């Protein structure tokens, strides 16, 4: 089987173990208490803010054998099974990873999930199926899921998770109760990083770079993170004089990166441009994402008129959308660099 059903070793199953999102937690607990939780939910919002983690807590609450008010109780056999990521009535579908980090959910995985949904629950009253990054379904998979949502085969709750809501079929969205998540506060992220062992000033710097995503902040913390930022900034510094030979060369070298690496680079490139806009706005009284690079960014302003910065941001947004598609990365990058170069020559 190509698709895998992930089984990490430990799940957080307490509402308070998931950072932030007080309003969303309250709404879910209220729906549970009133017995009005719909059979399909769609958790949407930026990457790395805890949607899936909260989905697992919700699953634990749905499956808990104790009265719903205190669920998940953390003590019953169902909660213990959930905590050790081995609940027989809970399944988590994650996309299949292909070469260079391309991810996809195919119809085979959805069919398997549908079969699981039809089986009688083993430990609890129903089954809970969580589909992470559900926007990565291809068309046959999406149509198959739609059928399953229209006619659920058994006592089952679906939790769909996505950071790209617009990539889903409207018909799927309309079958689910949507619950939107925002970014996390900088304070929340700093405190989580400090709990992970980061020093205060470092935590503050990483939180500023994380765009409200704890996932990204942790990733940066783990990877030492600022190397790719420097790479993006250097590229920006070279952009006014970018030669076609450099376009081919950069596209060839970055075409070998994984999609994760590239999207990280894009994020930094994007942040550099946004910081430049802030510098334009108020001449330097506001905080920017990359305080430590303020002088380098300010030095770029004479070669980057504001309208060009806006146009470059447009190119980045378009490229970020395209990164998910299964197209040759080197070719995509060539096109992207040429568009950037065109903007500079406008
Ligand atoms: Zn319980």
What features would you describe in this structure?
The chain is an alpha/beta fold and 346 residues long. It folds into 3 domains: 15-180, Rossmann fold (3-Layer(aba) Sandwich); 186-224; 225-345, Zinc Finger, Delta Prime, domain 3 (Up-down Bundle), CATH 1.20.272. It contains 15 helices and 7 strands. It has helices spanning 22-33, 51-63, 77-83, 107-118, 139-150, 170-173, 186-195, 200-209, 214-223, 226-238, 244-254, 259-282, 294-300, 306-322, 329-345; strands at residues 40-44, 90-93, 96-97, 103-104, 127-131, 156-162, 177-180. The strands form 2 sheets. A 5-stranded parallel β-sheet has the order 2-5-6-1-7, with helices on both faces. It has a two-stranded antiparallel sheet with strand order 3-4. Strand 3 (96-97) and strand 4 (103-104) form a beta hairpin. Helix 4 (107-118) runs parallel beside helix 5 (139-150). The protein is globular. The mean pLDDT is 88. The protein binds zinc ion (ZN). Zinc ion is lined by residues 64-66, 71-73, 75-76, 78-79.
